[in-house]
Design goal:
four-stranded antiparallel beta sheet; mainly beta
Length: about 300
Amino acid sequence: FLGLGIKLSAQINLVPNPSFEVYDTCPNSFSEIQHAIPWFQPYQPQGSSDYFNSCNAAGSVSVPMNYFGWQYPHSGSAYSGITLGYFNGSNYREYIEVELNTPLQNGWKYAFSMYVCLSDYSKRACDAIGAYFSISILTYNNPQWGVLNYTPQARNVLGNVITDTANWILIADTFLAQGGEKFITIGNFLQDSSTNWIAYNPTALYLASYYYIDDVSVVLCDRITGIEVLTERDVTVAPNPASDKIKIGLAYAFQNDAIILMYTSVGELIFEKPFVAEVDVGDLPKGVYFLVVDTWNGKMVKKVVKW
């Protein structure tokens, strides 16, 4: 992802329902992104893009276990999922789209970010995912589930193939608005031949390169400086595995008002507290835990092993 060392001047997220928590109906099958209101998919009229929520206790679109693999949300209890490629020669694509709360302003810089995670049962991983901002609503019905021929203003770095199925990976970028952009569409805008692929699970029954998406953000930046984003290198946990205490390193720029949370491997919250540099895990049973460092400029999840 792009690590952007620049200062935030406005933190009002223009994306409605950015973590897909709000829904009108609990999803019970595939192709129901429209239930995460007001999100929808540009391909019409037939559905394909997916919505996962823990309100579905056990099913193909449940959380954390679902048809495509096992993953807890980056935040809250829900996330979306789309196919960035389906390897049958058809350039198959899925997208999600939403109308921003306010149009973008001409000449101003905006920061886009989202968290993505490759699903366990994907056949391949790729690098081509981005966000295209349009003035008008973007819908199509031909070619069937085909590639949208647009250049995304914000995207993952080409060549940075996202292969992690355990952790949420931050994708962040900045861009200058032309003015009037009101809709954001997320997906793979490249042909298969222009997308970088890595075989992740060659024996997977599911042929797709399928990614979960959570915590989508678009914020206005200072015209010159931009936004500072929490990255993997800003958070350290040691020792890991640990038997007694763990030390949490957090870059000083992110420590103000930061909080830390600890979850069990099944999502039970153990504690939530203001940021501290040391946590005692001596009384916890042996096993796998998830430590969340939550700041104004993003979240980072670290897997912690207690032995």
